[in-house]
Design goal:
Elements lengths: L2 H11 L12 E2 L2 H12 L5 E5 L7 H4 L5 E5 L3 H11 L5 E4 L13 E9 L5 H10 L4 E9 H7 L10 H9 E10 L4 E2 L6 E8 L10 H12 L6 H7 L7 H11 L12 H18 L1
Parallel strand pairs: 2-3, 2-5, 3-4, 5-6
Antiparallel strand pairs: 1-8, 6-9, 7-9
Helix pairs in contact: 8-9, 8-11, 10-11
This protein binds S-adenosylmethionine (SAM).
S-adenosylmethionine binds next to β1.
Length: 285
């Protein structure tokens, strides 16, 4: 049965009303659902963790292969519907749990991926949570709002480029857009265009990073004051709290001209800057 017909049948049968506050926009277009499932299959995952299973638009096709599916859904009525749809499939576990509070330890690893048409109101915390699980997930195939997708893939010097871009580059070796979805791909239609992203996550920290902590301190300090030069941003940053001589020394070690703006630095330059900050803090101890 086409996704759209199944969704509306379920809605009527269970007298279900979508809750805007939970980001409930259900995928009703079969093509992106197939693209997401195919992208997930590329990894031949043994385990798929799904964020916000909803009415099972992805859970049902993903469950067609023999592997473990751990689906999180916070809405009680949706969990009852999912249980009605998939309750007899043993390898599918539906958890009525807020994903942000879920215990994901033991779920990550090179055979595990995360899939989901994300509830947009918590996109960043979901990314943060998934990125920080050890062992790391191999990949994510997710739908986000287009504006976020553009920020994640932005180039230096553009309006969308910011600490979120660098944060994702730190954890994802590769980010690709699989599809752009108009609001009508969902029911009810959201007010924004969406993007399906495919992220290959790194198995370890990016090469050359001496300290994750110093790296993110440098990134947040550089983007803290977008109108200032990099030197002034670093000087004003409460996160760094370094005298100007040390800031100049760090910029010199990293080989970066402090009169540039932070938003012009590429990823490798942030690595060099973070390392220089780290070496200074090590030398001070
Ligand atoms: N996967 C379904 C689909 O593609 O049609 C639903 C996607 S809908 C955009 C997002 C889903 O996330 C909703 O079902 C919503 O109830 C659920 N959700 C919202 N907040 C959540 C949270 N904190 N934890 C788990 N699920 C959540």
């Amino acid at each position: 049965m086409p996704l759209s017909r199944r969704t509306h049948w379920l809605r009527r049968h269970f007298d279900f009303r979508p809750r805007k506050s939970l980001g409930q926009n259900f995928l009703v277009d079969d093509l992106p659902a197939e693209q997401i499932v195919q992208a997930a299959e590329q990894f031949s995952p043994q385990r798929i963790v799904e964020v916000g299973a909803g009415l099972g638009a992805l859970t049902i096709p993903l469950a067609a292969r023999p592997r473990e599916i751990i689906a999180f859904e916070t809405d009680r009525q949706l969990c009852a519907i999912l249980d009605w749809l998939l309750g007899d499939v043993e390898r599918v576990q539906i958890h009525q749990t807020d994903f942000l509070k879920a215990d994901l330890t033991k779920l990550g690893g090179p055979d595990s991926i995360v899939v989901g048409n994300l509830p947009y109101y918590i996109t960043s915390p979901i990314l943060e949570k998934v990125f920080q699980i050890r062992p790391r997930f191999a990949a994510m195939v997710i739908t986000v709002q287009q504006e976020v997708g553009q920020r994640l893939q932005a180039k230096p010097g553009t309006k969308q480029y910011g600490s979120l871009t660098i944060f994702c580059r730190y954890y994802a070796a590769k980010i690709e857009t699989l599809a752009t979805l108009p609001p009508r791909a969902f029911w009810p239609p959201p007010q924004v265009t969406s993007q399906v992203l495919h992220m290959t996550l790194r198995g370890a920290a990016p090469e050359g990073v001496a300290s994750e902590n110093a790296f993110f301190t440098a990134v947040r300090s550089a983007f803290g004051y977008r109108r200032k030069t990099l030197r002034n941003s670093l000087k004003t940053s409460p996160r760094l709290d370094l005298p100007i001589e040390q800031i100049d020394a760090a910029l010199a070690e990293a080989g970066i001209d402090g009169s540039r703006r932070g938003e012009m630095l590429d990823f490798d330059e942030f690595v060099a800057l973070g390392n220089a900050v780290y070496h200074l803090s090590e030398a001070a101890q």
